Write the structure tokens for this entry.
Amino acid sequence: MPTHPATATAPSRPELAVRTAVLKQAAQSAVEYLEALDGRPVAPRQDAVAALAALREPLPESPADPMEVVRQLSEIGGPASMTISGGRFFGFVIGGCLPAAMAASWLVSTWDQNAGLWVASPVGAELEDTAVEWTRQLLGLPEGTAGGVVTGATVANFTALAAARHHLLARAGWDVEADGLFGAPELRVVVGEEAHPSLLKSLAMLGLGKKRVLRVPVDGQGRMRADALPHLDERTILCLQAGNINTGAFDPAAAICPPARAAGAWIHVDGAFGLWAAASPRYSHLVKGFELADSWATDGHKWPNIGYDCGLALVRHSAALEAAMSLRAAYLGHSDRREPSDYTPELSRRARGIELWAGLKQLGRSGMAEIVERTCAHAQRFAAGLKAAGFDVLNEVVLNQVLVSFGDAEKTARVIACLQADGVCWCGPTAWQGKSAMRISVSSWVTSEDDVEKSLAAVLRAAAGSSR
Ligand SMILES: Cc1ncc(COP(=O)(O)O)c(C=O)c1O
């Protein structure tokens, strides 16, 4: 490699030795962490959590040796972490982190890229653009769809809905970015009864209100009832869901989208995890119709296993997203290339598009399909094992989510507590249409058949132990 004149004769900088030593120590600690995963309980032990008190010290008055900082973090912090990178964490909907995405994350931190502007990080800008396009293709969305990489589906919902707000109000002759919502033409927002709370939070942040939405009744799986939709028109934002957090069920987009489009409504899809079913030929029928929407929110850190944090806002009408998000100032020196900050709420931000690029590159189309199909098969195995043992599986297991009740609310809570304390696996509680349940979400690329069998046995043990 040719040497740059500025570096040809320069002695190596003193901090280089510190940086390399710290990186090597972190790498060593990370490897030890991964090697110990199988032998530790999934939830951190109580003594490990209590030991965190040692890190909650008063603000240090003077600097510390970075090696010592990393050592303390690894020795005290690591044991107090939830074992999400193992194969037996089934809480919420949380994916693992693919090797390429994990390593990319280290490189991104080492490079310390600011992905807000092309000029500040050509690699951040170019790979984000590529990763957004790959995601569009995997999700089967229309050509020309624009998007940005954000922290998660909450912010993705916010970003896409800001584009919706812009588009509908601009059509009504109102410039919401300039004039705000004071005196603006009224928009109606329609959501399903089972809309995720983060969607409602996004509406609240946009001044559209959590409470003033029209809620459409749902069926027993949480799917919006197409026959119960209110009047839709060109001032309506209709929010659909692809993948219910509890049941994994999908709103019937194929029935809802064509008339909603004909009425001029903006259709937004919260598809935090469910939209990725599109990547699998076996499951893509579930997302039929969602491609007719105007905007979509999804997560990289759930099913694609990109690692935290990574979400995507995707919008059919690029101009609407840019109008809602772009920030122009002379000092920023915008280029005529795609400027990442034109598509997200932030200006400065981490180059998480690089991690998304790396993870999707590792997987390819068939790798993404394989994760979807394997985790769904694991969910089926859980459901079959629980049913065979006489427990009530509350949902139709169409995807990677399983809801199980062990009897009344108290008994179900006891089983969950017992399972979490046992440590072989980790599942959390939920409520489903008036019933208490335990939710099993199989979202990690790491989970093997052996993990499922061990976990199922642990669940059945906890259920048997809790009935005594
Ligand atoms: C349907 C749905 N929407 C939104 C979210 C919020 O996603 P995030 O936590 O990435 O912001 C979730 C999280 O599970 C979800 O399942």
In short: The pocket of pyridoxal-5'-phosphate is lined by residues 92-93, 152-154, 196, 198, 241, 243, 245, 270, 272-273, 299, 311 (CB under 6 Å). Residues 220 and 433 are 8 Å apart (CA to CA). DSSP finds 13 helices and eleven strands in the chain. Residues 17-78 form one domain.
